[in-house]
Design a protein that fits this description.
The chain is of the alpha/beta class. About 40% of the residues lie in helices and about 25% in strands. It has a four-stranded mixed beta sheet with strand order 1-2-4-3. It has a four-stranded mixed beta sheet with strand order 5-6-8-7, with helices on one face. Strands 9-11-10 form a three-stranded mixed beta sheet, covered by helices on one side. Mean pLDDT is about 90; it is low at about 240-245.
Length: about 250
């Protein structure tokens, strides 16, 4: 793969062409790896000129991915691994127990997966933990949505908890609210912001200044909460993705 060195930093990149693209798209996929999609017949020299002009942005994104890769938090669902739940770091404990069924529960600063000591049954802790996260997220997000709906004076038609790769929430034109279950790893204040954000779309269906006025009315520090999600979102999004694909 071609390489480019900018200010003593070397990046490896892949370059693909698309007839549908009108501009060059850059995607940072690793601390030193870039995926580039460019319009057909784009010259390589124009691509590299863009890379030089975007160096500060590239370096910032690469540093985030480097920090993310080095962090032990939310790395894998293994015994003794630190993981996030409602914005707090918990230690994952996986224990064999003389029970007939498995269980997952939160106790103080621990998330405990209890497995029946059965020699002929193998349990997938990744699946068990994800199921518990989703179940807990469903309960909290439905309660939060009902509470804030009353305050905003809106009435969503349906609430879905989904596994979304890039979005935290959405609101359809039919009034359906969708949430990413990984929000359960964020602090309650961040969850409140997301709920208010999506419900505000039932009043203003776009991101105009009027929309943000509605959000600000119920969440005056929404910019700080939105920034928390922007900074920490990749840490939440990475958890259980890789393991589930394996």
């Amino acid at each position: 793969m071609p390489e480019i060195t900018i200010n003593d930093t070397t990046f490896v990149y892949t370059l693909k062409y698309s007839k549908r693209r009108k501009t060059i798209c850059l995607k940072i996929v690793g601390p030193h790896n870039i995926e580039i999609t460019a319009p057909a017949k784009t010259h390589k020299i124009d691509v590299e000129k863009l890379l030089f002009s975007k160096f500060d942005w590239l370096q910032k994104k690469a540093n985030i991915l480097r920090t993310l890769a080095e962090s032990p938090l939310n790395k894998a669902p293994c015994n003794g691994q630190p993981i996030l739940f409602l914005g707090e770091q918990h230690l994952l404990q996986i224990i064999n127990h003389s029970t007939l069924e498995y269980s997952v529960k939160q106790k103080e600063n621990n998330i405990i997966i209890s497995l029946p000591a059965h020699p002929n049954i193998k349990y997938d802790c990744t699946t068990l933990l994800e199921h518990w996260y989703k179940k807990t997220a469903t309960k909290i997000l439905i309660e939060k949505t009902r509470d804030w709906s009353s305050k905003l004076g809106v009435n969503p038609t349906k609430i879905n908890i989904k596994d979304q790769k890039t979005r935290w929430g959405s609101c359809s034109s039919l009034g359906t609210i969708n949430y990413n279950w990984r929000l359960i790893m964020a602090p309650l204040a961040i969850i409140d912001y997301l709920v208010i954000h999506e419900l505000a779309h039932l009043i203003v269906p776009n991101h105009s200044s009027e929309f943000w006025q509605v959000v600000n009315r119920y969440c005056p520090d929404f910019k700080d909460r939105r920034n928390w999600l922007k900074v920490n979102g990749p840490l939440l999004m990475k958890f259980l993705h890789k393991e589930r694909k394996a």
